[in-house]
Amino acid sequence: MALPALQNSSVSFRKILGQFPQDFSLAFAYGSAVFRQTGSSQGHMRKNMLDFVFAVDDPVTWHTMNLMENRKHYSILRILGPKHISSIQSEYGAGVYFNTLIPADDRLIKYGVISTDALIDDLLHWKTLYVAGRLHKPVQILLQNENGKLRSALLRNLKSAVIASFLMLPESFSEEDLFLQIAGLSYSGDFRMVIGEDKAKVSNIVKDNMQHFRKLYSNILQECPQVVYKPQQGRLEVDKSPEGQFTQLMALPRSLQQQITRLVDRPGKNRDVEEILLQVAQDPDCGSVIQQGISSIVKSSSLTQSAKGIATAGERQCWV
């Protein structure tokens, strides 16, 4: 199953996409310039910077072509050439290389480039939750190829977001509660939520986009054996027994399980992951442990990626 694409993709977005080398495995637009947020008007959306992520199979080849076509998009680091740019992309931060504040079609855009393999790894294992976290929320898919591993990883990422959120919610909750929890996963631990971002950002994202969240998650919720989903009432009930929580914990992405292990396992114990998760499943503070684990992942990747963003933006410096 592919990530559901929103209908009526903007002609403007596709026109912008046409300015780049077309070797994409996935290209999507996201953020406040694409989806209305509480308190913003259509005119305000038009003024917001338009954000893209491009996944490519071969970053060196893609940057080689893009440097020929759009050399001015890059900072002074362009003098290093495509191989070094690709190394900076893959070896530092969250595996994404951003060019920002780029004029295109009478507006400003920002685009991040990530390798297909790095994207799949983040979707499956939540090593950084940087791009995977953006894909927990509605995005506008502009192009997606037939890569079966990528399609499977996109779906797995959505299921993981649901499972992690179940563990942090009470036994009974509303659709909105769930979508607020999901949308907040990738902001948990992000230092920008302390020093720069609107504190109501998560709520603003969800409240005006409930229909898009339902489209993204409805099939997953209806097929999940551990939840009773009542879409007409907008309510859900999840299994909070130790057995149910253990099943959910065992299905979490690998990096999150490793973070939980570090939080719970006392020095010198060296217990296996299954034993530790069984302990967490019986802990009344299970949800808090999950929250701390996710925050640890996000805090690390947001700091390192933002530091890299300043270096790669050069004269166009901004947070990415």
| Order of strands, widest sheet | 3-4-2-1-5
What fraction of the residues are assigned to beta strands by DSSP?
Answer: 5-15%
Rg, Cα atoms, Å: 20 Å
Counting DSSP H or I runs of 4 or more residues, the number of helices is 15
Write the layout of secondary structure elements.
Elements: H1 11-17, E1 26-30, H2 42-47, E2 50-56, H3 59-69, H4 82-91, E3 96-104, E4 107-115, H5 116-125, H6 131-134, E5 140-144, H7 148-168, E6 172-174, H8 175-184, H9 192-195, H10 201-207, H11 210-223, E7 227-230, E8 235-238, H12 242-250, H13 254-264, H14 273-281, H15 286-313
Parallel strand pairs: 2-4
Antiparallel strand pairs: 1-2, 1-5, 3-4, 6-8, 7-8
What does this structure look like?
By secondary structure, the chain is of the alpha+beta class. The protein is built from 15 helices and eight strands. The protein has helices at residues 11-17, 42-47, 59-69, 82-91, 116-125, 131-134, 148-168, 175-184, 192-195, 201-207, 210-223, 242-250, 254-264, 273-281, 286-313, and strands at residues 26-30, 50-56, 96-104, 107-115, 140-144, 172-174, 227-230, 235-238. The strands form two sheets. It has a five-stranded mixed β-sheet with strand order 3-4-2-1-5. A three-stranded antiparallel β-sheet has the order 6-8-7. A hairpin with a 4-residue loop joins strand 7 and strand 8 (235-238). Helix 5 (116-125) runs parallel beside helix 7 (148-168) and helix 8 (175-184) crosses helix 10. The chain is globular, with a radius of gyration of 20 Å. The model is unreliable at 1-9 and 315-320 (pLDDT under 50).
